[in-house]
Specification:
Chain B: InterPro entries: BPD_transp_1_N, MetI-like, MetI-like_sf. Chain B: Belongs to the binding-protein-dependent transport system permease family. The complex is a heterotrimer of chains A (282), B (318) and C (510). Chain A has 282 residues and is mainly alpha-helical. Helices cover 78% and strands 0% of the residues of chain B. In chain B, helix 1 runs antiparallel to helix 12 and helix 5 packs across helix 8. Chain B is globular, with a radius of gyration of 24 Å. Classes of the chains: A mainly alpha (282), B mainly alpha (318), C alpha+beta (510). Chains in contact: A-B, A-C, B-C.
Chain lengths: 282, 318, 510
């Protein structure tokens, strides 16, 4: 809470939180109310903005504003789902690879190194080839890929904390392993974890947009920002404004996730990572 | 050095083997009946049986795996189940687009990230330096598709400098046209990925500016800039090289989306359409080839890093 | 690149600075980029070395070059007329007028309409160099014209060295039509072996290369028996996504694009280098009901769905590149009359009909190949929703559509472009995927194709079309009349039915 207050007090942090809260709110509201049915095609194609259609209509005569609002829940849902799955996988790998017995540790370490080299997009394409496209497949692919990179960072963190004085002291004092784990080890990697998960969620929004654009994400009858980019892209030079909105929505949301992560990192005072970039999952 | 090379090669082989097993397991074993997946929901049992026979799915999994791997090692990647063409020949043809695209985007990445990164660190205290750093965060939040569309609007629709999509029909027989049609895609990938490398260059340069030997050089009467250029940058260069493997992999994968966006007949476009057509054997071989390229690049970068980094060269193993 | 601890380097190692290396890298990269930028900014001038070739942009790429076994029109669009020929073909500027091609003239037909005798043209050679013989014709046509493929038996035999006789069991006016299409192409030895990735015919162009995902190249056949091609080379390029085609046209990379996506027309309006030609066609975008299956076995349900859809709005989604239809027969085909007032747009009446049929809460799936522009489908689902029918679009790859809908009849509604001309017979064939079984239509149709006088045939077809229109086994959404964008440098490009075949005979480039 104290950390959060520290983040809010900075303008950048306040901006990030405000945007994320807004996106969350909009996606919840969209479940109950939308200006218009986002899938209703009136046949009045490419209308300019008006009181009825705040942002105009697309090539099928669907209301762009409603699709934009409805699209937020796909992006936000994928961010949450990916964050959750990646956390589970990340913690599992980090615990096994950081605190397990030596052979287990090493196998996990090599495994992580191999898997990290396997690109997220290719993993998603592979899963799509087998199971067909859909939001659950996107979450699975992103969750696995980002979970592995999260596991890599947190494993290093566990290894480091394990050698720290207070942990050694606790061991000497005869505390049980689980007690040490929950009392000392996990709390001390939490700051790194929180920053990681924030970045992961931002990157998940980006990746979902790319996958939906390729047709591997949200199905056609579920409005999504990536899907909107896909359906309007060929008319970009004729109706440029229709391409503007979904792209802007994605950028601002992702930016908010990234800035929130940056601000949290500063506020939590986690040490500067060795390779700043190696931490951002891709 | 020999020990390092051996060790690194061993790791490469292990990683490649693991990757191949992973791909094989996902595409051959996970679907249950591959023939059914390829044949679609309603293919007749006879068609499915034919397909199963043609793909050798009746043989034990291990045999299938080793046949596939053995073929791959002899550069025989099998044939597409949809069109019947040789996969290796088609890969070679598509690579004529994807490899130049990747190389060009790498050039953009380096050109954007290195000068700006060093500059932003050098002027870290000035508003300009901070602004550059802040824009990099913004750039990394832009979806590739959108960046490409905005680039198309600006450079193609409004200024008319570059073609908006497509590749010349004679390919590299029209080198000028071919390069022109790759500029916008390369800029798109390069700017987005450049934002990520930028952050590394900037933090490495900041560290360098703070490092003892740079401070020493400054205290000996060298200007800050001179000290940075002569003493600090080599270290920065090493950090960049160590990142290049991951970077190149990201560029190659970025090509998948960007090729689709710009209708380039490259590996990415091919892969996406093969997934749509459920050409699992082709997807399987293509994925392995891409992964191999990424793994080999990673290993090469490690070796190069090792050779030119005096610190690592002086040390023994680890 | 994991957690390597950055240690302070030892100073004695620092003698050879790496700065030059880094600078060198930066300089090289800078040079490369500068060269690239130079290329980018200096737009190439117009091709001074004008090659005598025509490049045509198409939307759909074939999945196989086997012209006989391809179920779509993508293969025939490129290869029939240009590479492959039949005894007869379709006259330029028409969709269904038959002219002799490999036969010296239209066949002699016996008085009872059962025997067709063709005389082969002399001196015709396949691209392989072999001479065309009556044996090739017999071996090509016999397996292609069977009850399984065309619905009736045809006996094919050679008469002497230069004649071939086809014998029917009942008169059939569609025989010549089949012979002019993919089933009538003459292959060397009748064999399709090795023709999935290559082609060997008798036409004015010979197959050169298929670059998958990109193009098919044909070269002029110097040994052609007839009027030689007007260009030395023809390249068909495939643009599944419209914007690349726009760019290719503007850059002069293609000279013609058929069926430009309607909203993209704005890109060429007022451009003096291109003509926009509206191509008349027999393309019927068809929303077919699975008539054999409930609830579509009830004509009221079918009529209700047909009345829910506003044909006028549909034409609007195509930017006017379409005409309203009231039956499956288009203006260019025998038997056309304007039937758009039958089951016309009337949502009120549609709801009432559904209520009468007791089908107020229908939930349906529309199976549609995924390469069509979705604007019209979006409109259809929305308008069906207005009468309380929830319809969900299931986009599938074309082979899946063939499998599920065409072969296995496993669908509720299907959305597809019936590009073939003279395909009314599908409504008289209960085994077709429509599953539409109306004995009266079948009787009229059988009578129509058995009639020897074309006027009788047209009148009977018209009568049958009226019945079908009222019975609504499908909704004929619109007759697609695509816009072809043709460079002013090209003359003689066909303007009729280019969605089914693009005959390049007579095309020249300035």
């Amino acid at each position: 809470m104290k950390t959060l207050r520290r983040v809010v007090r900075r303008p950048v942090g306040a901006f990030a939180i405000a945007v994320l809260a807004l996106v969350a709110l909009v996606s919840i509201v969209s479940l109950f109310w939308l200006p218009q049915n986002p899938n209703y095609a009136s046949g009045n194609v490419w209308l300019p903005p008006s009181a009825d259609h705040w942002l105009g209509t697309d090539g099928s005569g669907r209301d762009i504003a409603s699709r934009l609002i409805a699209g937020s829940r796909v992006s936000f849902g994928v961010a949450l789902g990916t964050g959750a799955l990646a956390s589970v996988i990340g913690f599992l790998l980090a615990l096994l690879g950081g605190l397990g017995k030596r052979p287990v540790r090493e196998v996990v370490a090599v495994g992580i190194d191999v898997l990290v080299a396997f690109p997220t997009t290719l993993l998603a394409i592979m899963l799509t080839a087998v199971f067909g496209s859909g939001i659950p497949i996107v979450i699975a692919a992103l969750g696995i890929a980002f979970g592995v990179s999260m596991g890599r960072v947190m494993r290093a963190e566990f290894r480091q904390v394990q050698g720290a004085d207070f942990v050694v002291a606790a061991q000497v004092a005869g505390l049980s392993r689980t007690r040490i784990l929950f009392r000392h080890l996990i709390p001390s990697v939490l700051p790194v974890y929180i920053v990681q998960v924030t970045w992961t969620m931002g990157t998940a929004v980006l990746a979902e947009a790319s996958l939906s654009y390729l047709g591997f994400g949200a199905p056609k009858d579920v409005p999504s920002w990536g899907g909107m980019l896909a359906s309007t892209q060929r008319f970009v030079s004729i109706y440029p404004e229709t391409v503007l909105w979904p792209g802007l929505a994605i950028t601002i949301t992702v930016l908010a996730f990234f800035l929130f992560g940056d601000q949290l990192r500063d506020a939590l005072d986690t040490r500067d990572p060795v390779d700043e970039t190696a931490e951002v999952p891709r | 050095m020999t020990r390092f090379l051996l060790g690194r090669t061993g790791l490469l082989a292990l990683a490649w083997l693991l990757a191949s097993v992973l791909i094989f397991a996902t595409l051959r074993i996970l679907p249950g009946d591959v023939a059914q997946v390829i044949g679609g929901t309603q293919a007749s049992p006879a068609q499915i049986a034919d397909l199963r026979e043609a793909l050798g799915l009746n043989r034990p999994l291990l045999t299938q795996y080793f046949e596939w791997i053995g073929g791959v090692l002899r550069f025989d990647l099998g044939a597409s189940v949809v069109t019947g063409t040789e996969i290796s020949a088609e890969l070679a043809e598509k690579a004529e687009v994807t490899i130049p695209l990747t190389v060009m985007s790498l050039a953009v990445v380096l050109l954007v990230a290195i000068p700006l990164g060093v500059f932003a660190a050098y002027r870290n205290d000035s508003p300009v330096g901070q602004l550059v750093a802040a824009s990099s965060v913004l750039a990394s939040a832009i979806p590739v598709v959108w960046a490409g569309l905005l680039g198309t609007l600006l450079l193609s629709s409004w200024l008319g400098w570059l073609p908006s999509q497509g590749f010349p029909r004679d390919g590299w027989e029209e080198p000028l046209q071919a390069i022109r049609s790759l500029v916008l895609p390369a800029l798109t990938i390069g700017l987005i990925e450049g934002a990520i490398l930028f952050r590394l260059v900037r933090s490495a340069t900041l560290r360098a500016l703070d490092a003892d030997h740079v401070r020493t050089a400054m205290s000996q009467g060298n200007s800050r800039l001179r000290a940075l250029l002569t003493q600090g940058l080599p270290g920065v260069g090493l950090s960049i090289i160590s990142m290049l493997g991951l970077q190149a992999a990201a560029l190659l994968v970025g090509a998948v989306v960007v090729e689709q966006l710009f209708s380039l007949p490259g590996l990415g476009t091919m892969l996406v359409s093969d997934v749509g057509e459920r050409d699992l054997p082709k997807v399987q071989s293509t994925l392995l080839v891409l992964t191999s390229v990424i793994l080999v690049m990673g290993a090469l970068v490690d070796v190069i890093h090792r050779i030119i980094d005096p610190r690592l060269r002086a040390e023994g193993e680890e | 690149m994991s957690e390597s601890n950055p240690q302070a380097p030892r100073y004695e190692k620092r003698k050879r600075s790496k700065a030059p290396l880094i600078i060198a890298i930066v300089v090289v990269v800078g040079l490369v980029a500068a060269v690239a930028a130079y290329f980018a900014l200096t737009r190439p001038g117009s091709d001074a070395t004008a090659k005598n070739e025509v490049a045509v942009g198409l939307v759909l790429e074939p999945t196989s070059l086997d012209v006989r076994n391809d179920a779509g029109v993508a293969t025939g669009q490129v290869l029939i007329d240009n590479v492959y020929q039949g005894l007869v073909g379709i006259a330029a500027g028409s969709v269904a007028d038959i002219v002799p091609v490999l036969a010296t003239e239209l066949p002699e037909v016996s008085d009872n309409g059962l025997e067709y005798t063709f005389t082969l043209r002399d001196g015709v050679k396949f691209h392989s160099g072999a001479d065309l013989t009556t044996a090739d014709v017999v071996e090509s046509l016999a397996p292609a014209l069977t009850p399984e493929t065309v619905g009736y038996a045809v006996a094919v035999e050679a008469v002497g060295d230069a004649q071939v006789k086809l014998t029917l069991e009942a008169p059939n006016s569609l025989l010549l039509w089949e012979l002019a299409g993919s089933k009538g192409v003459i292959l060397e030895g009748g064999s399709t072996d090795g023709l999935q990735n290559s082609a060997n015919g008798t036409g004015p162009f010979e197959f050169t290369r298929w670059k998958q995902g990109d193009s098919i190249t044909l070269d002029k056949n110097d040994a052609y028996w007839g009027e030689p091609a007007g260009v030395d080379r023809a390249i068909f390029r495939f643009f599944p996504e419209g914007r690349a085609a726009v760019n290719a046209l503007k850059d002069g990379d293609i000279d013609v694009h058929t069926a430009l996506l309607p909203p993209l027309r704005a890109e060429f309006e007022g451009n003096a280098n291109f003509d926009m030609v509206r191509a008349e066609s027999a393309d019927v975008f068809t929303l077919a009901y699975n008539n054999a299956r409930a609830p579509f076995d009830d004509p009221r349900v079918r009529q209700a769905l047909s009345m829910a859809i506003d044909g006028d709005k549909l034409v609007g989604t195509q930017n006017g590149d379409a005409k309203q239809l009231g039956s499956p027969i288009t203006e260019l085909e025998p038997g056309y009359t304007d039937l758009t007032s039958v089951n016309a747009y009337d949502p009120e009446a549609a709801r009432a009909l559904l209520a009468e049929a007791g089908q107020q809460n229908l939930s349906l799936t529309i199976t549609a190949p995924n390469f069509y522009d979705t604007a019209s489908l979006d409109l259809v689902t929305s308008q069906l929703a207005e009468i309380g029918v929830s319809a969900k679009v299931k986009p599938v790859e074309f082979p899946t559509w063939l499998n599920d809908v065409y072969s296995n009849h496993d669908f509720d509604l299907s959305y597809v472009d019936h590009a073939e001309a003279r395909d009314f017979g599908n409504y008289a064939n209960p085994g077709y995927y429509f599953g539409y079984d109306n004995p009266e239509v079948q009787r009229l149709y059988a009578e129509a194709i058995a009639s020897i006088d074309p006027a009788d045939e047209a009148a009977l077809l018209e009568q049958a079309a009226g019945l079908v229109a009222a019975d609504a086994p499908a909704k004929w959404l619109f007759n697609y009349t695509p816009t072809n964008v043709v460079s002013t440098k090209v003359s003689g490009f066909p303007s009729v039915n280019t969605n089914s075949r693009v005959n390049l005979a007579g095309v020249t480039v300035e």
